[in-house]
Amino acid sequence: MNSQTCSGASRFADYFVICGLDLSSGLEPDRFAGDNLESTPLERSYKCQVLGHYPESVLWNPFDRNAVGMLCLPHGLQFRTQKHSLEPQFHSFVITREDGRRSYGFSHVFYEEVRNRKICSAMQTLQAMHLTELSSSQVGSRSRRNHSSGLGHDAHNTRSLPRHFKLSTHKQGAAQSYYDAVKDTLYVCKSIALICQLPYVYAARKFLAGLHRLVSAPCPGQLSIESYVHNMLYEVPTPQPGRSVHFTCPVVDSVIIQRPGSIEELPLFDFPLRELFTLLGVECFIQLFTCVLLEHQVLLCSSDYHRLMLVAESVTALLFPFSWQHVYVPILPASLQHFLDAPVPFIMGLHSCSESQLKSASEANLCYVDIDSQTVQLPEELPSFPQRAEFVSELVELLAKHKVSNGQADRNLSDCILLPHGSSNVTNLMTSSCTLPGGFGPRMHRKHSWSHNTDSGVPSGSNAVSPQSDALQRIVAIVQCTGVSLDGCGQVNGVECELPEHEQYIEDLRFNNAVREVYLNRFVYMFSAYEHFVIQPNQDKEQWLKNRDSMQNFDKATFLSDQPEHHLPFLSRFIESQMFATLIDNKIMANWSEVEPNLRVFDRRIRLLRKRFGEALVRTPGYETCTTIRDTELLLEKRLVSVDAEVVSPQEIRQASDPLQHSAPPSKTRPGIFPLLDPVILNKEPVHRSRKCNTMQWRTPHRYPHHRSSERREAADAQSASDNAARTGSTETSNGVGLRQPKLSGGMSPALVAQTNWSFVEKLLKDCKSKTKRMLVEKMGTEAVELGHGSGEGSLVGVEENTLIASLCDLLERIWSHGLQNKQGKSALWSHLTNYQELKVCDDTSKPIDPNFLTPDLSSMALETDFSTSSQQHGRETHKLPTDSRPQCSNTAPFTPSNSDQPNLHPLPVSLTTDMRNVQAMTDIKTHIGYARAWVRLSLEKKLLSRHLHTLLSDSALLRSQYKRYAFLRCEDEKEQFLYHLLTLNAVEYFCFTNTYTGTILPYRVVIFPSRKTSAATTSANSWVTISGTLGETSPVPIPRGALEFVFRHKNLGILTTLRIGHDNCGPSPKWMVEHVVVRNEVTGHMYKFPCGRWLGRGIDDDSTERLLVGELVPCSVDSEELVETCRTPPPRCHSPSVPRRSQDARPSVAEIQHMLGDAVNSIVKLLYHRKHEKERSMLTLLLCGETGLVYCLEQAFLTGFKSTRLFGRNLYLWDYFLRAKEHFEAALLETDPDMTRNSLEEQVLYCYCHLVDQIESSRRTLGKDGKFQLLVCLCAREHLLSRMLRPLSACRVTLEMYEEQSFIRNPALLTFLQQILESLDEFDIVLENSLTQGIGGTH
């Protein structure tokens, strides 16, 4: 048993298998192949059997007869005649066991002549039955048609064969479907296969093909088949890591197999990626690769089983260091198609003949790849792979370097189209697809499947050569004789000049290595800092495994906060995948057991990257191409050139006098028929292997040098690579790319130690200056370049702000790590901060806690019991809503002095420890390095980073206890310069905390400033507010009864844009005059002022019970007291909508209105032209509805000459005019109006206008008339109606009645100006915030 187990670890192949037709059981239809009775007997599938497998069994890999038989011949037994193509085919397959172990199989399928008369007779009988049934069905259907049309039964003669068989003899495909026992020779498929532990595709293919050739064309003196099979099963070993083996195959001379080292290189992969990119191309394969990374369902389809396996194995191999964790069936037999209904991620391969029966269950999550037609249909909302354009460019250059075709995608990459669902001319499984365009003219390629053979039965190798080929070759020869180089033109007659098969295999290995290194390089750069965000457990292995599913092992929020913003759609979904979770679990398991092999290689590559760029987290300004291809290629070539061992050539093991022979000797084997082999001989393990399993009877040629053990050689190679990386890293450091802390040895002199540290401190200071300057230049944009700050740093312009801030966090970690006495965690900065916090807490233990000056999160916890008690005493209802659906609200009115009729806004405490407590209260951060980054971002956004660090470093006693004398933080002059550079960042505004931690629950304080008039200061109605920002919108938040100040908690809203305030108009005195509303983010300290200055209530003002207020961010220079004093004063004019109803406000002149309107439109056009991100909708809202916005300017224009005053009743509003105009347009559309000349475009404009006015009037009954006008302007701008509706309005009779002659709407010159300036908005697609539209959709 031990010998067999040891043999399993070193054997090249476990089993040799023969599958085919079992003559004893006869023809048995394959019940798993589906209902194929309508097909001819030659087209049907029949049940195949495993005729023999050798040896009988091995302990480490039990033989699975059903699985092997099903995968060796996935389509069952197939019969053919001489009219078909009978070329042998090869495919591989994989068998996955319940424990996850995989075995690889390699099947060589060929056709043998059927010489058994019973089988031929049975096929002839089935043929006759099929023809009789087909003929009778056609005659019956024809008779029914003739009878129904009045024709007699003699209209046509009956036939014994289908009509198309005799009348369409020119269609060879129809003739091939029928078998004539007299004229045709019957053939049946058979498979010989190897079952191996490792996927050596090339070697298995060569061995099986050579073995088949021995049987097809035997030569005198050749060895028996058993000799070659016995040699492959027992003599050929699997190479140890980092070694190569040479052995002999039948017919061919020799084959070299090699195995990459376990430390330096990627695992073994022997499938040719050259064929993969020739089939799919780079662009569509990247889309397929993205779907696999995000664990979508992937279905591959092809008529060639080898292609299915090639694509599936390639895409999973390129996932390294990750591995596919879900269902993996590259070749799905027909009997297992119900697996496609599984609601789990999978990668499955389906033969194209089964595609007609396929019904996709979850097409929204399915990626469908038709390999033969080169079509990829993608799931919905698939994010782009990070730096996809640069990645594709690098791969395309690599393909060109190795002269590999990029499929047909490289002809026109822009032709990838989306196919509509249900398209009649395309078999469409999904709603969208990415289709590769066809080439120009026929493209010659190697044949990989039976479906590529022509119907005439002529093999592809016998195709006639084009008459131009000889002439072209002579021309090429003449050109070469003239001395003209034809390098790069390696095509003759449109076909690439192919290398010999062995050389092509070596080139494929080089290309495989290069492509896999490029893919690994992407993952190394994307996750170079992943170790910093792994949450290491504080328990033993058993406890961790028990609670594994309920624990968070990775700080996802902090990791995502460091990533470029345009990478977040992909990365946020990928880190939730099972393959990423498995990698993190393996990282944690490495604390107790051996490191997983893939993880060991990945971590080593990251260490090499850090040696190149420095020990800190890696930040590179742009895309970094792969630099490790040459190193691993040298190791590969070394194994191929200097082979470690050669296997002894096969020896004849069958003796003529052997009484145990069960099969005929080789000389008596019938040519073309692969025989069953002798099980007794092939079950015998060689004596030397059973005696000592580690002894391999190899013959080592003199030309091959002896090598050390693989472990010693890998260690030497690793040391060499480390030295190379160190040399590269020192070069990069000299260029300013990386900076590494010096390692000081005990033998260095004190002067040299001081000089080395001084140089490092200077480099840190220089790096700080460079990074702060880069951040300022990027934030200030073109203005900084014009001022001369961008000189010499042009390459840095365009780097994303989030990446620069993450780089600043890395720099702070490097500074705080320099000269550290004892590192307490992964973040030296956070360790220093927590030590400082503990000292301050100890110093302030005797001081009572003032709830008003606590951070909101902590104050709410401290006051929860007290507040609930006071609420019950006062009889108030506390409004607490679930955090996940509605905001949590708490009334803070008890903290407002009762004798004051106006609210007060207490200033937030400006303290380092306060910001620390706010960060510690964030539940989505799990690591110390995550807390440090959140604190840095919060301090930077509050413009307190330099101040906080100055406070932290002022504690000299703490600094001396933690840092050595030569540390950067103890160099006074450099420390002051460092803080000064950070202080310059206060010149620009950052929202790096608000925009990064989008899922954090934050407290918001709302302060309402009503009118000072007693009758308007309070309301009896139930009031509410709804606040919108760049990251979301709240549901209605109830305002506690009688309170003017309250706090609610909600998921991060981003930068606040609008506030909607209203009430239900109930109670004895519901009317309420609101001057201003102030909202403050209690963590970041940002204050937003929302001017109102209007009434809320029915029967007053414009009958509005809700108003939309547009906010403006209060500058940091304005303190709370100044803001409160400003808000207690009524606004000079209102913002919702922007026109006051006070007679003392002077109206602007016509020229002023024209000027304001031009500025408003220009600002909107400038924003829309340069808009880069979705978050800039907030700026558009301000330009539309804010101060001097488009709504305000148009309102002033329409109020000019407006006859609003009436003798009896309330004054008219602009909305009254637009409502009357709508009624006039509706009447004009129903019946012909002689005063209006309409065309089709004008009618469409009128219809759209009436539809919008109806929607606003019916759906927003709580809005006042001015609010409805504001909504109408915004919606008309979105629907491109502003300029188009002016002419119909000017020609309307309502305009003559309600406007004076010198108004904008009646004066021809002013009307033309208004129309022309608004036409510039029609060139852009305007997307409004939901807070503006209130659910009103488009008019289309």
UniProtKB/TrEMBL annotation:
InterPro entries with a match to the protein in the record: cDENN_dom (IPR001194), dDENN_dom (IPR005112), DEN5A/B (IPR047278), DENN_C (IPR043153), PLAT/LH2_dom (IPR001024), PLAT/LH2_dom_sf (IPR036392), PLAT_RAB6IP1 (IPR047277), Run_dom (IPR004012)
GO molecular function list: guanyl-nucleotide exchange factor activity; small GTPase binding
SUPFAM superfamilies for this protein: Lipase/lipooxygenase domain (PLAT/LH2 domain), RUN domain-like
Stretches assigned to the UDENN domain: 30-594
Keyword Repeat: yes
Composition-biased stretches (Basic residues): 700-710
Biased composition (Basic and acidic residues): 874-883
A GO cellular component entry from the record: membrane
Gene3D superfamilies listed in its UniProt record: 1.20.58.900, 3.30.450.200, 3.40.50.11500, PLAT/LH2 domain
Chain intervals for the UniProt region annotation (Disordered): 134-159, 446-465, 652-672, 692-743, 866-905
Keyword vocabulary terms for this entry: Membrane, Repeat
Compositional bias ranges of the Polar residues kind: 451-465, 652-666, 727-736, 885-903
Domain named RUN: residues: 799-998, 1181-1333
Ranges where the PLAT domain occurs: 1002-1110
Entry's family note: Belongs to the RAB6IP1 family.
Entry-linked PANTHER family: PINSTRIPE, ISOFORM A
Protein name: DENN domain-containing protein 5B
